[in-house]
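Work Package 3 (structural annotation) set out to generate three-dimensional models for the target panel prioritized at the project kickoff. During this period the team completed the workflow that converts sequence records into discrete structure tokens, so that structures can be stored uniformly alongside our sequence database. As a representative example, we reproduce one entry of 318 residues exactly as it appears in the project archive.
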Amino acid sequence: MKKVLVTGGAGFIGSHLVNALITHEVNVSVFDNLITGTLQNIKQWLNNPNFNFIKGDLLNPSDLQKLKHGHYKTVFHLAANPEVRVGSINPNIHFQQNVVATHNLLEALRKMKNASALVFTSTSTVYGEATKIPTSEDYSPLMPISIYGASKLACEALVTAYAHTYGFKTIIYRLANIVGPRNEHGVIHDFTQKLKKNPRELEILGDGTQAKSYLHISDCIEAILLGLEKSTKQVEIYNIGSEDQIDVKTIAQIVVKEMRLKNVEFHFTGGVDDGRGWKGDVKNMLLDITKLKSHGWKPELNSRQAIIKATKQLMTDL
């Protein structure tokens, strides 16, 4: 990993990955359109000789030309639209920013012919409503219930096919809900924003019983780097998550406590389809992480601890 490219490197997970890579003295180039990411997330590296920022959009062919002389050995592809709910309103966003963007990057890599490994961050939503909990990487059939999940599964198929056809290695990570500093979407961010506007009442999408796995960003980055180091197959798939779940109502209680609020009234919208927060919301998710644990990785924090730590960190940043 002497020279790497990180697409979406100015975003939430991407910027934390960049921190870890440069700390390990890796030469890092970030390719980001700064629509959801921000230079603030990577400002500490802008004058570092081991860092290069390229403003560009994977949907713009002329921007991709900026990569052709990069000679990147490893490419971390994190650029995507991360908001699951937007797919039910405008599915074309996920098709363009996830599927088409990934195809364009793969075409650029094919023409460069020098990348030896592609790391792709996928999602637990590719499993859809899994009937086996915890859900392992070999679970089937994969039947996502959101456009976001479908777009990520399509990306998985593309990177797998390109890896086999053009001879590079690929590692696919199916992520649980990742929380921590710089995260500008998701349940903690939503709750804190709502409570800042109205500290007496909190609207909670769904019936509050949605139970999912949450992982702190620090554990996530360790898992990503270890999986890359330990994988031996041409195509490798790993789940990354915690070993337990937490429900939405409990998360709301934690956020209220960390914000030092009292007598907050919870208002549950009731949701759709048996209490989901929105169309395409997976109500019960827990990943089997046995495969990655066999390489020596284990989350330091469980779901509750990750939520508490991420909320405290958010309070510090406000």
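The chain has ten helices and 13 strands.
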